[in-house]
Design brief:
CATH class: Alpha Beta
Structural class: alpha/beta
CATH superfamily: 5'-nuclease
Strand content: 5-15%
Strand order of the largest sheet: 3-2-1-4-5
Distance between the termini: 26 Å
Radius of gyration: 15 Å
Order of helices and strands: EHHEHHEHHEHE
Largest sheet: 5 strands, parallel
Length: 148
């Protein structure tokens, strides 16, 4: 996998894709900076796109959530973009997730983060953009990139 691939956590994706969110400007700056780097690409995991669909269409989270059709169109556009590296979990991810959950001080609310970390590690992706950096510091194989 390209060493300059930057994977996106759902919180960064949501804030980037929805104008008016509190962290939209920070997410946009990070994505634009990455786009300007030579050989850089954005990495997306299906799990992150599924979470995006769930969050972006939730009227309890947003005054004006995306419609499901709009959110689906945005996900399709992203997944098919030339600059995107599609990161798919392989057969090792489940066992690695279980290993991490057993060896690190993680509880049930950290399962999805652990699956994401294991998926990125299996794909050779070392950089993750997230607004929740502390949640991923426990994974020594990941470099956390926090949008500012």
């Amino acid at each position: 996998m390209e060493p300059l691939t930057l994977a996106l956590d759902p919180d960064v994706l949501v804030n980037w894709m929805i104008r008016g969110t509190p962290r939209h400007a920070a997410a946009l700056r990070l994505i634009e900076a990455e786009a300007g780097r030579s050989r850089a690409s954005l990495g997306l995991v299906p799990q992150v796109l599924h979470e995006f669909l769930h969050v972006a269409t939730d009227p309890k989270r947003f005054e004006h959530p995306l419609s499901m059709s709009d959110a689906v169109a945005r996900v399709r556009h992203l997944w098919d973009a030339r600059e995107v590296v599609r990161i798919l979990p392989d057969a090792t991810v489940l066992h690695r997730t279980l290993e991490l959950l057993s060896s690190l001080p993680l509880g049930r609310k950290r399962i999805l983060d652990t699956v994401l970390a294991a998926t990125l590690q299996a794909a050779g992706v070392r950089r993750l953009a997230t607004f929740n950096g502390k949640d991923f510091e426990v994974f020594p194989f990941l470099e956390v990139v926090e949008p500012r």
